[in-house]
Design a protein that fits this description.
Blueprint lengths: L9 H4 L9 H22 L19 E8 L5 E6 L6 E3 L8 H13 L17 E11 L2 E10 L7 H11 L3 E8 L11 E6 L4 E3 L6 E3 L9 H15 L6 E5 L5 H7 L4 E6 L2 H13 L5 E5 L2 H7 L7 E4 L8 H9 L4 E6 L2 H13 L3 E8 L9 E7 L1
Helix pairs in contact: 2-10, 3-4, 8-9
The protein binds S-adenosyl-L-homocysteine (SAH).
């Protein structure tokens, strides 16, 4: 992508910061951000941040696509996104980030809605039926798996079989269709109840070398290609020989830890969200991984309570807010020699790296990865050693 990519919705949407920049320019901006925020600490440690790992295909990378359905004042059915900081729906089709086929499927649903006389949900008075459509794409054994989720306000689904027939007639690649019931007046897209309408109710993805089950609500990295590169980097930094015990803190659904488990003696994942822990255990079992365990706990507390943990390598992937001074102190107290820090926020990474430095750690490597082209999100992978 050397040409400019411009998006007619960018001002109203706010999702893309760099839709008017070439990809090379975007990468340079991100390299510059890393230099600005992390250049000093890198210099103090005698290293240079690596150039950002760019994407081969910086457009249409999102494997999860969401559209809210609405009617205009004139009664026209539209689908798109909420205007930034509001509940007004703006009509969007052909978003530059979203998988093209997912987009075409949602467009087809919009086309089918009038002939099935489905009523569009009205957020102001809580009437109507169809609220959102989500499409999630996976790949397993080289074959595409596509899940369509229709979020509706009640369980009725008039003309269900004919609708499935019509939609699959246009897109036979769709492997499963799920109806999700969301009666609440909420900005949350998904409600609590799923009804499988067609297929198995989930998709699977094996592009990371492991098989992951993706249900309507489960977390999965949205850019599969770049995730592969990020995890590859984390694994390389961890320098595992098969003998190490690894602690995967803030482990989410356990992907990084599972990725490392093949090269480690044992992995322990720690995660606060019980749903993510359940998915992590499930995924490990499905992949026949027996040298991994998952613990549902606050990461800082876990560290403080397991000073004698004896971990050789710590991998950490905290949320945007970063880790805590107590976590970092505890890690040092546990005498962990090698730390791989995956960060989605360079500002908190810089802050935490300084805290690690105070505990006698040195930054050895720092490489940004462009997980989300066109947006200003910046992911980094850092290697810290004692
Ligand atoms: N590596 C993970 C994603 C990590 S995102 C994956 O690929 O799935 C950051 C994770 O930290 C989230 O899952 C979040 O629930 C978790 N988290 C947030 N605060 C936490 C805390 N105090 N203790 C443990 N986990 C926490």
């Amino acid at each position: 992508m050397s040409e400019m990519t411009s998006c007619p919705y960018s001002k109203k949407c706010g999702g893309c910061t760099y839709s008017d920049r070439t990809y090379a320019e975007q990468l340079e901006i991100k390299n510059e951000t890393v230099r600005k925020l992390l250049g000093q600490i890198a210099k103090e440690n005698g290293i240079k941040p690596g150039p950002i790992v760019g994407a081969k295909e910086p457009l249409y990378y999102r494997n999860k696509v969401h559209s809210v359905f609405a009617r205009t004042k004139k009664g026209q059915i539209i689908r798109g996104i909420y205007r930034r900081d509001s509940h007004e729906v703006i009509s969007v089709s052909g978003c530059l980030l979203e998988d093209k086929k997912a987009d075409a499927i949602i467009e087809e649903i919009k086309r089918l809605v009038p002939s099935f006389k489905y009523r569009i949900f009205d957020e102001d008075n809580g009437t109507g039926w169809l609220r959102h459509v989500l499409v999630r794409m996976g790949k397993c054994g080289g074959k595409e798996e596509i899940m369509v989720i229709l979020v509706t306000a009640d369980v009725a689904f008039p003309g269900k079989n004919n609708f499935v027939k019509a939609l699959r007639g246009a897109f036979p690649e769709i492997t499963t269709i799920v109806q999700n019931i969301n009666k609440k007046r909420t900005s949350m897209v998904l409600g609590d109840r799923d009804i499988v309408v067609y297929g198995k109710g989930f998709i699977e993805d094996d592009r990371l070398g492991l098989k992951f089950r993706i249900s309507p609500g489960s977390f999965f990295q949205i850019n599969s290609e770049q995730t592969k590169k990020l995890y590859g980097l984390a694994l390389e930094f961890a320098q595992l020989t098969g003998k190490e015990t690894v602690l995967d803190a803030y482990c989410g659904t356990g992907t990084i830890g599972m990725f490392m488990s093949k090269s480690a003696k044992k992995v322990t994942g720690v995660e606060l969200n019980p749903d993510a822990v359940r998915d992590a255990r499930d995924n490990a079992k499905r992949n026949g991984i027996t040298n991994i365990e998952f613990i549902c706990a606050d990461a800082t507390k876990y560290m403080q309570e397991h000073v004698e943990g004896g971990y050789d390598v710590l991998c950490m992937d905290p949320p945007r807010s970063g880790s805590t001074p107590e976590f970092i102190k505890a890690a040092a107290g546990m005498d962990i020699g090698r730390i791989v820090y995956v960060s989605c926020n360079p500002e908190t990474l810089a802050r935490d790296l300084k805290l690690f430095a105070k505990q006698g750690y040195r930054l050895k490597k720092l490489v940004p990865v462009d997980m989300f082209p066109l947006t200003d999100n910046l992911e980094c992978c850092a290697l810290i050693e004692k």
